[in-house]
Amino acid sequence: NAVLVDGVFLNGPIADARAGEKFVEDACKIIMEEVIQKAADVTEKVCEWQPPEKLKKLLDLEMRDTGEPHQQLLQLCQDVIRYSVKTNHPRFFNQLYAGIDYYSLVARFITEALNPSVYTYEVSPVFLLVEEAVLKKMIEFIGWNEGDGIFNPGGSVSNMYAMNLARYKYCPEIKEKGLSGLPRLVLFTSEECHYSMKKAASFLGIGTQNVYFIKTDERGKMIPEELEKQVQRARKEGAAPFLVSATAGTTVLGAFDPLDKIADICEKYGLWLHVDASWGGSALMSRKHRKLLHGIHRADSVAWNPHKMLMAGIQCCALLAKNNLDLLKKCYSANASYLFQQDKFYDVSYDTGDKSIQCSRRPDAFKFWMTWKALGTTGLEERVNRALALARYFYLKLRLGFFWFGGREYANICFWYIPPSLRDMEEGAEFWEKLHHVAPVIKERMMKKGSMMLGYQPHLGKVNFFRQVVISPQVRREDMDFLLDEIDLLGRD
Ligand code: ABU
């Protein structure tokens, strides 16, 4: 009964499903052993660092005409894991995410297996309802009576959504007519803001010169009086101020802008207030620390990434908008007739995909939902409180040679390490020049040894300093002690 079409036999599937299932089963064992268990062990390396040219040789990157056998594919999986950074290692302090959340991980396994796209209820019934439930809860924590939102691929995209939404509110005709005929639009954000503000201004045709950066104090917080001066300056210039983007938890220093005072200025001048709480939004889960975001309920939009402090797995980012005025839908919808038919047999208000700038979209809210279900609100609160307590512990333990700065408000610990050779030197140009090279050298040594990972950067006139970020509940007090000892060890010369 062979059926041959265009020279292709169509009898049975092309691949052996049993071989595929066995591959999944064996690969899952490797993931369990090598990532979930072994990588979380402090006696293991955070990474087995190799330079790019050597790594290319160690990995079999070539894609060939014929497929490769089971064992070889499993070996590839082993190699990929071996040479990747273990971000769930308790001594990975490098980024604004770290650790492993077992529940969101399982959610990821499920969604990867089901492979849904979240745009219509007909293909993602569960995930759309989950997204609605998660957004509702986040809106409640912000303190709004009602609101709307969308999960999207990253805080940068959330900020772009917000900027465009603010502009749409300012001049709704832009959706059809485009940029021509618009006044020079100006937005305001602090000099410590995330670099996505510049990217968004450039991408949206606002122009980076029309982002007015507001001075911050020594803790990294926007100075409201400076904001007001800049708004007045823009008005005098004949420009059209339309948006203030405040930051709750800056990327480098972890500073929180004074939202309530900024909201007063926005109200006075009729400006949209966006809060980039991508990093700091999670403090809302903590009754002890939510005061950091005092005034956030007055924002028109908020970006909040549960994949950071709440460990929902990259990526899990929401843009939330105050009031349910359907603004997202009005601003972004394009009514694709092949997806968003209005004569479907169910309530099409659940086909929420047209609120998004994406078409295909991952069910990211599901990861956060699983974590929230597993830990409860109190468990999430405990996670935030523990991370901030560990940061506090680190400050208390800082000793000779470690010099911190910033506001110490959140989980970013910024410090210079002054090696013994520089400790008696006068703080002149030569001192700062030499200090600038210290963090990169220590970083290189820790990477090559694989003992830990933390970031460094020069920042707003400061020479290279370390930024240590504490997030994961797998981090113990001993790991913080280790970090200090290890820097002393790696930097002693
Ligand atoms: N988008 C901010 C994250 C960068 C970081 O992990 O440091």
TrEMBL record:
Keywords: Decarboxylase, Lyase, Pyridoxal phosphate. The modification N6-(pyridoxal phosphate)lysine is found at residue 308. Pfam families: Pyridoxal_deC. One of its GO terms (cellular component) is cytoplasm. GO terms for biological process: carboxylic acid metabolic process. GO terms for molecular function: carboxy-lyase activity; pyridoxal phosphate binding. The keyword Transmembrane helix does not apply. Its cofactor is pyridoxal 5'-phosphate. Belongs to the group II decarboxylase family. Homodimer. This is Glutamate decarboxylase like 1.
